[in-house]
Amino acid sequence: MLRVNSRLLTTRKSQFMFTSNSLRFLATFKPADPLTTHDINPQTVEAKYAVRGKIPIIADELNELIQKQPQSHGLPFSKIINANIGNPQQLEQRPLTWYRQVLSLLQYPDLLKNGDPETVKSLYPEDVIERAQSILKHIGSIGAYSHSQGASYFRQSIAEFITNRDGGYVSHANNIFLTSGASTAVSYLLQILSVNENSGFLIPIPQYPLYTATIALNNAKPIGYYLDESNHWSTNPQEIRELIETNQSQGINIKALVVINPGNPTGAILSSQDIIELIDIAAEYGIVLIADEVYQENIFKGKFVSFKKILSELIEQDPQTYKHVQLASLHSTSKGVSGECGQRGGYMELVGFKPEVKDVVFKLASINLCSVVSGQALMELMINPPQEGDPSYPLYKSETESIHNDLESRAESLYQAFLQMEDIKCNKPMGAMYIFPTLDFDPAQYHKLYSRAKNSNLQIDDIYCIELLEGTGICCVPGNGFGQKPNTYHLRTTFLPPGKEWIDKWINFHKSFIKKYKDE
Amino acid sequence: MLRVNSRLLTTRKSQFMFTSNSLRFLATFKPADPLTTHDINPQTVEAKYAVRGKIPIIADELNELIQKQPQSHGLPFSKIINANIGNPQQLEQRPLTWYRQVLSLLQYPDLLKNGDPETVKSLYPEDVIERAQSILKHIGSIGAYSHSQGASYFRQSIAEFITNRDGGYVSHANNIFLTSGASTAVSYLLQILSVNENSGFLIPIPQYPLYTATIALNNAKPIGYYLDESNHWSTNPQEIRELIETNQSQGINIKALVVINPGNPTGAILSSQDIIELIDIAAEYGIVLIADEVYQENIFKGKFVSFKKILSELIEQDPQTYKHVQLASLHSTSKGVSGECGQRGGYMELVGFKPEVKDVVFKLASINLCSVVSGQALMELMINPPQEGDPSYPLYKSETESIHNDLESRAESLYQAFLQMEDIKCNKPMGAMYIFPTLDFDPAQYHKLYSRAKNSNLQIDDIYCIELLEGTGICCVPGNGFGQKPNTYHLRTTFLPPGKEWIDKWINFHKSFIKKYKDE
Fold first, then answer.
1. What region holds the Aminotransferase class I/classII large domain (chains A, B) (predicted)?
2. Could you give the CA distance from residue B243 to residue A213 in angstroms, rounded to a whole number?
3. N or C, where is chain A less crowded by C-beta within 10 Å?
4. Are residues A276 and A300 in the same domain?
């Protein structure tokens, strides 16, 4: 190595500081090459996240082409329909007025202090003004860092919401952590639970790829348990127990059981009985239950019952057996009828954890300082909305009902469309925002398709989704991004895009796909 | 293991669903114990984060006591002064009106669509309305997820800001990643660069504890290089080179060199010459430069020059040597005169990275979906503020000047106070929000203090900060949370708290501390 001595530095300084750029400095060392993917953390290289993976990236490129060359892009469509991600406000779902009015005042409290009161009242209903004042009084500025777990005022309010939702079983504010959507909660939990590469996580198949991605980042082991497509994507506790026993006998230490209810990508809802059986497993094996309940408001059929409620009932019946069950339940402002994805609001409730373990979660939250405070406020507005008699109530009610009905009728339209498509099978969506139909293409009848797959290193569902995108602009995610039983193929689509035109395009595309690939 | 068979489940179900709570269910298995810290990821247990660590936690408890028993708490003060964290708006710094007016409209665009235009104009200046309209036109709703790197409109604007700041050297929007404050950027970078426990990270001592905490979480190796307190906390490139050579010879693979400029906790500013020498090190050894430049607006003395600008000049002079230097530079809306910590805005610019490595960062950002979109908008408002002639300009100018002057005069007052305190040494703060004075307590003169430390398992700076908190309510962070040379003791305080009263309390406390512990 050539060491830079102080004389040289002096020379250099004068060259650098005082001469024109045409005079070049002669380096005294040989520069190194930049890093490649072989030089960085292999877990970060290997993790996969299909929701914004290969096909959505192609969609982005096509979209860019359309923007740049609106007249001459040469594509058979003029816009991309993003059915790959549950992002309602990207697809014309309007935000709830109640949320946005309060957030508007929280961002600009001077309006309340210095604005002409009559003028302000002409623009904002009285209960909006009161709520904003009450929040500001308790938390101060939304521009200040809050407590690492989130402002105590919001946590108290969330605890009351949970208590009411669950029929009176008490929730405590110090068990609540405000998070950036639910993703941060998943990240904290999987990080603390990943001891080494033998730490196992039971995840549903199909699953939301955040889980496999985060498990991969933590170099832990995903253990998939199949949801039963033939029985509304229900869980099979016996299979889960067998997986635990098998994996334990192979030295895998199972740390958590992830349950997504209502299901993503399946749109299914668990019964109380399913939930009891999963809690039993957690109790018996000392496994943390991660209940991803972000779609709890998106229910079209059946009823949502929280893990917390059932666990509380079980503890009441049999405290010795259930008091140590460790449950993390997750919620978000991104889904439901809120759809406020970009605002990054969310919370998790931790029950049954030892204080020393909760302290570690607290430390992770502290390292991130706090979740965005406007998102914390939005969570409060979501779980504590206007009540009958409040000035904002009628509009709030009509907006939420309209969004809910829209989602339900879109789900139904898309479901009906899948039912009539040749060689597509589909469960009726009960909740969430997604349908996960089977591409039921029998190899004996689709020789061209399977030979294309073989020759192209693509899977059947990849081919279908790519051709759907290229033919119609509709962007979905192949089932292999979520996990599926071997030799089965699916896709996940949201039912968020408005209108029926895109569904008609899909039906037509499907006919031509069948014509192209099915044996005659 | 007792397997739950289907008959039992049926019995159970009926018990659970239909009987009163007084009838208890008899469990068929022995429940497991909950996890302890021995069962979870040891890196998460071991990571330390002093800014919200031991002493701030005591402060929170005292604060709770004051809130609960305002008349009978028995403490010698009536409020906590949080000088432990750079959180300006917690300490009465007012947000800039320009930011909050635009954000208010972004949250409630219906005001622009449906509100009476004259009324809206009476509350919001014209350029505020125009900016809000322009942002909404480009990004749609702030309630939608943006592109994983952040909305392209904002990234374009940030790239233009960097280009102008750095004298015309071009920045590209596709190199910009919007992040939640700068912490997320640090987390992505350290995560991808941590290959195994032999991955080394050069960090300054003293440093912001986010770095040691994140390195610990990634099970990598922190390698401290000392800043030279006797020379305004400057860097010593020769020492850094020696550290690299020594560590490499011991099998450590040095991945990144972290530089905080302006410094936290030191408040110092690097010279251009310092920066050149650090870039040379990065070029020669192929080490990623992480330039934490979040305090670039907080300059009271000297001049801030970005790493990106100097690197661009060097590339212009000698492209072969410098074109592969990998630089990540970080900025935030939390600091500067903005102080909008709770809004979680930030960005990083990546230059010199291979596309395949940048793709991995993109994937990590995608797994988190996107940073909060209102925080992205705030970043745009910060780097693209009103210009002379715009209606908002006069107020914007007077507010920013007033905050800047306040910070400067508070820094000066506190600095002067430290100068007059017995056995305290202190560099004049040049930037950022912090002072990091030395507690220059000679063991030969402070026998009682050193023997207390020995008997209590506390360090000298711990004792000082605890007694300061308990005596005055002022909450600081002991230097050992940031790192310090052996047998030296410091503390970090922000100079954000308003007024002089707290400084007078500190001076009095210090006198009594000296009286208590210094040999007579």
1. 115-495
2. 35
3. C
4. yes
